[in-house]
Each structure stands twice: as C-alpha cells, then as structure tokens.
Design goal:
The protein is of the alpha+beta class. It is about 60% helix and about 10% strand. It folds into three domains: about 150 residues, no CATH class; about 80 residues, Alpha-Beta Plaits (2-Layer Sandwich); about 270 residues, no CATH class.
Length: about 650
C-alpha cells in the first residue's frame, strides 16, 4: 500500500532497433519515457536529433481527429440501445496486436475520404438552405403584395417605393400621406416594431413625398423578387425541399457506412496508441547510428523490461538503472493498494498525485472517507439500494477498469451507509421503524459531540502522518516543532476547557493548562526558526500561534456530518408523511403516493450520496491534506492509452 518504487534508466540502442523496441515497450506498457538531454560539456545540440518530427505528431493528431469525427457521425445513425443492456454488454476485450492488425487492414483513408465527400455535399446543401431561409425571411413581410414590383416599375409617370416606418410613427405617417391624392399607399404587413409599406408616387410630387418620408424615418427596402413575392417565396420553398431531399439521400448513403463503425473505433484507438509512441520517440536523442532513451520503470519490473530489450536488441544495447532522486519532482508516480483502498485512489488522483518523497495518502484517508460518507447518508434503505445496484453492475456488466473502480467506490460507501443506517435506525426515511443506537432527531447534541470528536481524530491523524514523514526523513526536531507542540497546545486547550465543565476532567485541569502553555511557548519559539533575525523569528512564531484559531474553524467544519444526516433524514421523513396522507385516500391517491415515495426517495438518495461525496472530499482535501500533504506528482504515463471503446491488454 504505497507509492511504487521506481528505477531511472538510461538505454543506448542502435537506431535500426528503435521501431521494434518502441513496439515492445508499448506491449510491455510499464515504461515511462522521459526527455533525454545531452551532456553540454562534451556535446553540442547539433550532434543529436530527435527521431520523430513535429510533422509526424500533426499527422497522427489529424488521423485521431478524423476517426473520432467519423465515429461520432456514424453513431448518430445507430439505433439507440437499452442503456442497461449496453452497459451489460460493455466493451470488448482485445489485445494490442489484434487492435493493430484490424486497424492496419482497414482502408481508413479511402472510407474516411468517401464519408467526408458526402458530408461536404451535405454541408454545402445546408449552407444553401440557410441562404434560402435568409431570403425568405427578407421577403416574408411582403408576401401579401398583390402586384409584381417589376410590372409596377414599368409605369413611366410614377416612382415605386417599398420600405418600413416605426410602429410608433406609422399612424401619423399614414394620415399625412393619404392627404395627397397623387400617392397610393398600401400597408402590406406589420410586426411588433415596424409597418411595411408600398408607395406609388406621381413624379410631379416626388420631392415633396420624399421629404415627408424622411421626416417619419421611412427606411427604403429593396425587394429582390422579379415576379410576385408570394410566387418567389414558393419557388424558394421548392428549392429548399429539393435540397432537403438531396440531404436525405446523402444521409441514407452515409447510413450504409455504419458497417464500418467498429473499424473506425479500431483505427481511433490504434492512432491514439501510435501517438504515444511518436511522443515517446520525440523524447529520444539520436545520432546517425545510436539512440539514447531515458525513463522510469517500476523496480519490480526492471528485469522483465531488460528481457524485452534483449528480445529485440540481443546483446547490442547498454542499460543502466539507478535509484532516482527521492526529492525530484520528475519521478512519475504509480500507486499500488489493496482491494479496499484501490477504489479510493480516484480521490487522490482528482486532488493531485503525491510526490516521490511523500507517502500515498489513499490508505490513510480511505477509512475516514468510508466512515464520514456513511454517516452523512445514514440510511439503511439507501445503502441497500446502492449496494445491490453496484454489486449487480460489478458482477454482470462488462466494465472498463475506470468504471469498475467507480462502481467499487460507491459499493464500499453503500456498506458504510448500511452500517450507519442501522445505527440511526433509518430505512428510507423511517418508512419502517428500526431500533436505533442514535436517533438523529432526538440525539442531536450527541451527534454534535461525535462529529467534533471524529473531526479531531481526522485532523490529528493528519498531523501524525506529518510527524512520521519528518522522522522518516531524519527530521525528528521538525516533528516536535511542527506537530508535537501543536498536539500539546490544541489538546491541552481542549482538555483545559473541558475541565471547566466536566467534573471528571477537572482534577487534571492544572496539568492540561501546563501542557497547553508548553505547546504555545514551543510554537512561538520555533514557528519562525527559518528566519535570520531574532525579531523575525519571534514575529513569525507569534503569527504561527495565531494559527491556533483556524482549528476552531476546522472543528466546526465537521458539524456537516451532523447537518447532512439530519437534512437527509428529515427530507425522507417529509416524503413519507406526504405519501402516507395520500395513501389513506382513494385509489388515485394511493397511486400518487407510490409514485411520490419512489421518485422522491430516489431523488433524496441521489442527493444524499452526492452531498456525501462532495462534503467528505472537502473534509479530506481541506482539513486533512492541509496538515501533511502537498501533492504535485507526475502520474506514471503507461505506453497503452486508456481506451474509450475497448479493454486493451
């Protein structure tokens, strides 16, 4: 249960073996390739090249992008599967060799080119449809024009105007225009903001009418229609229908390519793994004959790695492996834990991987996460429901490693929920009465005390880990200064305060006060020990002691354990009360009662688990990790990409 020990290696091989060796590395998988650097004292940058160019990377990225686009396109034509059946069937298992063979025999460029040709045609038709829609939208307000503007424009003694006037001025505009007998005004249509007009003006009064039009904000509009507008719109609609028909035929043709969906998935995963090889080779250093490869391998797999190298290079290689610098941030991190702890690694990964000189926090926070989440949900029924669902999924569904770990995580949390559901005597919010050790509604004070006690254990356990790390690294004084004095100050203060209210603790009050004072003096004396001047040492020491106030906030944070179990319990109780009232009425009420109970209890279960997941993570990251854990490690990058569509072995 720890960070996997690594070996840093340097490997010299002949360039002729490079391609076969990188293939072996990928099959072996447990190799993390690092950037190789040349010795600046003996060599110059001109003495070396990188085996693969950036153009290789651009090319493979393009293939990955195109294959993914093809998959997404073809999935749209696939009949929707039952989600339960799809998860049960899961993804197929395939070896790396078989994946490569299937991808290499598939004429990707040809089939992808055919699909893209069809998609381009479809996109061009879509663009034409959008253009037609835009033209129709422009003509729509003029649809009711009874005459052809082209015919009207042939009248030599009049001028034709079409345009809009704001709805606010339309009434006054019309009133002014109709006063003149030499003007024909037709309001063709109107909308919320504008009125649309056709005006036929005798040329003799054209200037006068133009002035009037300007004064009312008349905006001329050029109507692009050779005949009647309605006929033009109809013609456009026919053109649209024709384009839609063409696109439907293209979609039918694209649907025939659905038979290649699995082939595109093979290609996609193959290209992703090819990218890993290219990116790895771009980290090699190359002369005309020799390649230098640097990287990391788990210590227990070093001999296996050398065997793989020998298969390719025979005796024509030089391998040197050594212990990496413990304090280096470049050492990649691989975690290895037992079956219980392993699913909780997702929380460590989500926060940050540990550095090589730290410890894996997963086995230390996992029991707390298990307990806290169980308390927050605290319902036997919810726990049983999630346990059965996750157990069924783990046994019956063909899951990827990532999904399997996710289901295991919630399977373990459901066990904790069942345990604390029995402690609280809660079954779906109390629909069935169970005996309880603690009644959240009645024993809220006890819950507060338990929450604070658990919080204290959580916090001081984190501090204890920090002390262990200091002692392990040969810094016992730091363990005393940064942990021991804080134990004395905080625990002494808590005990001293309890001595004022609890008779059982009162006899030890003076001793506890002395312990508290020693701890506080120690914090002030050592909190600024890194500073040079005495004043700075004292100043930082006092400031460090001020940090004791943050512990009050830390302890208060753990009250969310009580708050969440109470909120979930009361919401479940309210759902049951409503369901019972409806159930006691007529048949329709009974049906509604069942629906309300099922739907809202499921919702409450979902909400409770979501809250437990988030708030327990918060207590872990903020309250516990803050005491000992920094993170910032680089995850170990295996040579086989995590697949979206297959289990690759």
């Amino acid at each position: 249960m720890a960070i996997v020990k690594m070996k840093k290696f340097k490997l010299f091989i002949f360039d002729e073996n490079r391609e076969n060796l990188i293939n072996k590395f990928q099959k072996f998988n447990y190799v993390h390739i690092d950037e190789s650097d040349f010795d600046e004292d003996n060599f110059s940058e001109d003495d070396f090249t990188r085996p693969r160019s950036s153009e290789d990377l651009i090319e493979i990225d393009d293939k990955i992008k195109r294959s993914k686009e093809d998959i997404d396109l073809l999935l749209k034509f696939k009949d929707k599967e039952n989600p339960i059946k799809a998860m049960k069937d899961g993804v197929s298992n395939i070896s790396l060799e078989e994946l490569t063979a299937r991808a290499m025999t598939f004429p990707f460029e040809k089939i992808d080119g055919e699909i893209r040709t069809l998609v381009d045609k479809k996109d061009k038709n879509k663009s034409k449809i959008q253009n037609i829609d835009s033209k129709i939208a422009e003509l729509k307000p003029w649809e009711d024009l009874s005459s052809s503007l082209k015919d009207l424009s042939k009248l030599g003694y009049v001028n034709i105007y079409t345009g809009t006037v704001s709805s606010n001025h339309a009434e006054n505009f019309e009133g002014e225009v109709i006063k003149n007998d030499l003007v024909y005004l037709e309001r063709v249509s109107k909308d919320k903001n504008f009125n649309y007009y056709l005006m036929i003006v005798e040329k003799s009064i054209d200037d006068e009418i133009k002035t009037l039009m300007t004064s009312y904000g008349f905006t001329p509009i050029n109507i692009k229609s050779d005949g009647r507008v309605k006929e033009t719109i109809g013609s456009y609609e026919k053109d649209k229908d024709l384009l839609f028909e063409k696109n439907n035929k293209i979609e039918d043709e694209l649907r025939t390519y659905l038979k290649y969906l699995e082939d595109f998935k093979y290609s996609y995963e193959h290209y992703r793994n090819e990218k890993i090889k290219i990116m790895s080779e771009r980290k090699f250093l190359k002369t005309t004959e020799v390649n230098l490869i640097e990287g990391y391998v788990p210590e227990d797999k070093l001999s296996d790695l050398e065997k793989e190298i020998q298969k390719v290079c025979k005796d024509n290689y030089y391998l040197r492996a050594e212990e990496p610098d413990r304090d280096s941030k470049e050492v990649p991190i691989l975690l290895k834990n037992n079956a219980f702890v392993s699913p909780f690694e997702i929380m460590t990964e989500m926060y940050s991987m540990p550095r090589y000189n730290e410890i894996d926090p997963t086995p230390f926070f996992a029991p707390f996460y298990f307990i806290f989440a169980g308390i927050m949900v605290g319902d036997f029924g919810y726990g049983l429901l999630v346990f059965l669902a996750t157990f069924f999924a783990l046994k019956k569904f063909n899951l990827t490693d990532k999904k399997r770990r996710f289901f295991k995580f919630f399977n373990y949390l459901s066990i904790s929920t069942i345990i604390f559901g029995l402690v609280f005597g809660s079954f779906f919010g109390g629909i069935i009465e169970l005996p309880s050790l603690i009644d959240p509604a009645e024993d809220s004070t006890l819950l507060v005390i338990l929450s604070v006690i658990l919080g204290g254990i959580h916090i001081f356990f984190g501090l204890g880990i920090r002390a262990y790390m200091n002692i392990r690294d040969g810094k016992p004084r730091d363990a005393l200064y940064d942990v021991g004095f804080w134990y004395m100050a905080v625990l002494g203060a808590i005990g001293f305060i309890l001595g004022k209210v609890l008779p059982q603790v009162a006899p030890y009050g003076k001793l506890l006060m002395i312990i508290m004072i020693i701890g506080m003096v120690g914090i002030v004396a050592t909190g600024g020990r890194e500073e040079k001047s005495r004043g700075a040492k004292i100043g930082w020491g006092v400031y460090s002691l001020y940090g004791i106030t943050s512990y009050l906030g830390d302890f208060v944070s753990y009250l969310r354990l009580m708050a969440l179990v109470l909120s979930g319990s009361f919401l479940g109780l309210a759902i049951n009360m409503i369901a019972r009232m409806l159930f006691e009425s007529n048949l329709l009420g009974k049906l509604f009662a069942i629906v309300i109970f099922v739907v809202f209890q499921l919702f409450n279960a979902f909400l409770s688990y979501l809250s437990a997941y988030v708030h327990t993570a918060r207590l872990t990251y903020v309250e516990m990790f803050n005491k000992f854990y920094e993170g910032g490690g680089i995850p170990f990058k295996k040579m086989i990409e995590n697949s979206d569509y297959f289990n690759i072995d």
